[in-house]
Write a structure and sequence with these properties.
heterodimer, A: 184 residues, Rossmann fold, 3-stranded antiparallel beta sheet, 7 helices, 35% helix, 26% strand, globular, B: 249 residues, mainly alpha, MetI-like fold
Chain lengths: 184, 249
């Protein structure tokens, strides 16, 4: 269970988080208007930003989808997924299920489309066996409706019992997941 | 290719005409024909190859030592500000120092046979150091954050993020440094005159007024430098794609 208490964070004069308190037990969706601090909250939970005040408890090993894909451009999609300790065969199977052709599996990430890179980044987080917390920042960006459905189904299936916080603007994606929704 | 050959032919003709105009049988400026003749006379001799191997071996040793030291100092300097504050003035001093001054000082510390190792090392070191710093600065910060979040082991982070990030700038500096190695190394040999070196041969050719031989040795230095730069570039490219697990589209 992740517990964030009274989190404050400012960047210069702009206060992004004002005493945010949040508890995540199992998977949850986080929604809120642009600029309300969703990504900042995720970065604090990942340990990439330090809150000006407040505490975070219960963070285990994290696997994340960032705002950007952050794939190693010289590696293939399965290579990127296996990098974090995922099973290579499972990576190939899940990528194929999300529409990767055999040729796509052998392309370096730099040569994949934006949507393909996003799917690979999502599977890298979901298949990371060592992670007990998933932090997913807009993981369905750049996917069409059918792919969002498939990716959401894979997300629900592969999250299996872990704590997860998924940020999205898309109410339809949130509905597909069927997870509790937290509003920021 | 045709344009390059035409340009080469143009400059060879200019060189030949200039040498003919100066006259004195090529004493002041050997013709391309005289240069190639002198080279053809040198090539079959064991002494020629011994000198080339002597100089190339020492210059390469200086280069390798400079790469290892430059990468290590660059990594330390980008990690710790204090290390950078210590190293930077030394690099600036080396960059500003003329080869001749350094050679004269180095002759007090090492045997003339090892002079080219020391001089090529010191002149290449700042180039490799700067290349390493640039490469580290160019490395993708977002990928490094990803590695931190996923707690990737250092070996994997080095292989798939640092190495591809640092490599382009480091590789360019290595290729440029290889050419510099030869210039500074042979210059040192011309001053220190170690036995069986290319620099010693160049100096002897000069004092005996064997101008075609001076040109022939100069041609050897230019070709050796270009060849080793080319080999270094190819070797580095192959090493990168092997070490970083690169795949091609």
């Amino acid at each position: 269970m992740i517990t964030a208490r009274s989190l404050y964070k400012s960047f210069g004069e702009t206060q992004v988080l004002r005493g945010l308190t949040l508890t995540v037990n199992g998977p949850a969706v986080l929604m809120g208007p642009s600029g309300c601090g969703k990504t900042t909250l995720l970065r604090i939970l990942m340990g990439l930003e330090t809150a000006d005040a407040g505490t975070v408890q219960g963070m285990g090993r994290v696997a994340a989808v960032f705002q950007e894909d952050r794939l190693c451009p010289q590696l293939t999609a399965p290579g990127n997924i296996a990098l974090t300790g995922a099973d290579a065969a499972a990576a190939v199977r899940e990528l194929e299920a999300l529409g990767f052709s055999p040729e796509d599996l052998h392309r370096p990430a730099a040569a994949l489309s934006g949507g393909q890179r996003r799917r690979a980044a999502l599977l890298r987080a979901l298949l990371c066996r060592n992670a007990d917390t998933l932090l997913l920042d807009e993981p369905f960006t750049g996917m069409d409706e059918t792919l969002v459905e498939q990716a959401a189904a894979a997300t629900v299936r592969l999250t299996s019992g872990r704590d997860a916080l998924l940020v999205t603007h898309d109410p339809r994606a949130a509905a597909l997941l069927g997870w509790p929704v937290l509003h920021l | 290719m045709r344009t390059k050959l035409a340009a080469l032919a143009f400059w060879l003709i200019v060189w030949h005409l200039a040498a003919m105009a100066l006259g004195h049988g090529g004493l002041f400026l050997a013709t391309p024909g005289q240069t190639l003749g002198a080279l053809a006379a040198l090539l079959p001799t064991a002494g020629f190859w011994r000198r080339v191997l002597f100089t190339a071996g020492r210059i390469l040793l200086g280069f390798v030592l400079a790469v290892v030291t430059g990468v290590a100092l660059g990594a330390l300097s980008s990690r710790w500000r204090a290390a950078r504050a210590l190293v930077e003035p030394v690099m600036q001093l080396i960059r500003a120092m003329p080869v001749a001054s350094f050679v004269i000082l180095a002759l007090l510390w090492v045997r003339s046979a090892n002079l080219s190792v020391v001089v090529s090392f010191t002149h290449v070191l700042p180039v490799i150091y700067a290349g390493t710093l640039t490469g580290i600065a160019d490395t993708d910060r977002q990928l490094l954050e990803m590695a931190r979040v996923y707690r990737l082991p250092l070996s994997k982070t080095l292989r798939v993020i640092w190495l591809p990030g640092v490599f382009p700038a480091l590789s360019e500096s290595c290729i440029a440094a290889m050419g510099m190695c030869w210039k500074s190394g042979v210059s040192a040999e011309v001053i220190g005159l170690p036995d069986w070196s290319v620099g010693d041969a160049l100096y002897r050719a000069k004092i005996t007024l064997a101008t075609p031989e001076v040109f022939a040795w100069t041609l050897v230095i230019v070709v050796a430098s270009a060849l080793l730069s080319h080999l270094a570039a190819r070797g580095l490219r192959a090493a990168k794609s092997r070490l970083c697990g690169e795949v091609t589209a």
